[in-house]
């Protein structure tokens, strides 16, 4: 065990692989010293496990209606009670983890690379490319995200796929800004010049050397953005423009429970706790990651 | 957002008046470009709607000739750029189209509903500043304490609690259970329409009318939605205040003041707090603009007859003229507030001039 640790924290790694693993090990170690980050990581781990093993964790079929068991309060049989169609809320919340995880993953997969490419291109080439790309980015950044997402969904039509597209459209500009700032900082550094002198094309310089250096700040930014993405998706679901029934999406579930909030409080509140917990988890982890990977940027975001 | 723009290298050559003129010009150009961008986005959204606007007018059994004529009349046969220009012309002259849900011009509807949102958001930001700033200062002055951790969690909750959920729970607890506040709507039903709208702000209108009963009732209804909204600005403002204060408290002049024996309370409020007032204005401006966005969800919950509610109803009816009109107005106000706080920052901070 000690030898593995020594190998990982070796100051003069013998291979890039060793250096990379060593860096990963150090980041991991630093994260483990931040209690909030650990809590966040655990919450997200639980979310992922819940999504993966939903059929085993859920106690009931999330879609099965039992009209004889409508609006039952939380009990041993139904941990979070039942909704207006007699469906078990706990099981629906558990299956909802899949939807939430799918939404945040897809938005990240769509928006982060798009923002990364645009930002790196703007930062690396500068001049007119920079001015045009950043002009567009700034216009998007100066508009309210939720309103823009709402308008896009209204145009594309309700549904979870369109909600994901709309959220991705409103999220990329933040990533483009981060990537551009990062690119600017090392675009004139010696190692980039060295690669260029060796005859590498700009595509190769960017893909092989600039992009990888942007990843850590991108990871921080994406993690910090996750809470906002979850809230927007839930908001779209709540209004009725996101996930459609009978999908057990948390925002849509709150919307269904709205009519019963005064007498059957659990129908609307339970999915809300799930949203808060998961969003907080991403916030905690994002804060911790930022302290480790990107200490300069401080609290400001 | 708080970094001052780099001083121009030719500063010595130009006279200050001339420089100010050019920076104002540059500002207006960016503002114009941003507004055009906003218009381009709403125009684009209007074009990707899968509903064919011509079919909506003529019906799907109209002969091709009729279809083509209506298409020409609506200007849809012209190149996109020309369509965009006439769209911009329409918007500038206040022609946002007609809302299907109300049958009135969208601009009239928006003028009617906007004051309700403004009233709620303004009270929200006041609450956010009054509570958020002291919380941030306290957290920074006791860094690492339990109080600080607690305030930090409150700050993060502002990013994690869905606004609609907070509104629902607030309604269930404070209205239904404790009966401390009024329910949905701006006033009780039997007060509805009693005060003639002059400003559209019911608090102001009831004072003008001298009707204190309605004023009290309106406050009673306003306090919960405004608090829910205020919570989000509180969280953000407290977080930013804390980080600004920490920056200041680590400066040498603060140490000097402490060494001199200045009482800690004075060190914090007189020495450390003063310089952060200007960046805080930017934060408050951003937060105020953000509340307009947050009000969409809160208004839906509280049946608040503001722009957010109008937008949601329009969204559910796929009433695109109303959706795009609301988007434009909220976007324009958002950009406007951001730019104003930007200007205020430059005017108030001598280093940024």
From TrEMBL, chain A:
It is a multi-pass membrane protein. Its main location: membrane. Residues 97-286 form the ABC transmembrane type-1 domain. One of its GO terms (cellular component) is plasma membrane. Keywords: Cell membrane, Membrane, Peptide transport, Protein transport, Transmembrane, Transmembrane helix, Transport. InterPro entries: BP-dependent_transpt_permease (IPR050366), MetI-like (IPR000515), MetI-like_sf (IPR035906), OppC_N (IPR025966). PROSITE patterns: ABC_TM1. It comes from the Bacteria. The chain crosses the membrane at residues 36-58, 99-125, 146-171, 226-245, 265-286. Pfam families: BPD_transp_1, OppC_N. One of its GO terms (biological process) is protein transport. Belongs to the binding-protein-dependent transport system permease family. This is ABC transporter permease.
UniProtKB/TrEMBL annotation, chain B:
GO terms for molecular function: dipeptide transmembrane transporter activity. Pfam families: BPD_transp_1, BPD_transp_1_N. It is found in: Cell membrane. The chain crosses the membrane at residues 21-45, 120-141, 153-176, 218-238, 278-298, 310-337. Keywords: Cell membrane, Membrane, Transmembrane, Transmembrane helix, Transport. GO terms for cellular component: plasma membrane. Residues 114-341 form the ABC transmembrane type-1 domain. InterPro entries: BPD_transp_1_N (IPR045621), MetI-like (IPR000515), MetI-like_sf (IPR035906). It is a multi-pass membrane protein. SUPFAM superfamilies: MetI-like. Gene3D superfamilies: MetI-like. It comes from the Bacteria. Its main location: membrane. Belongs to the binding-protein-dependent transport system permease family. This is ABC transporter permease. The lineage of its organism: Bacteria, Pseudomonadati, Pseudomonadota, Alphaproteobacteria, Hyphomicrobiales.
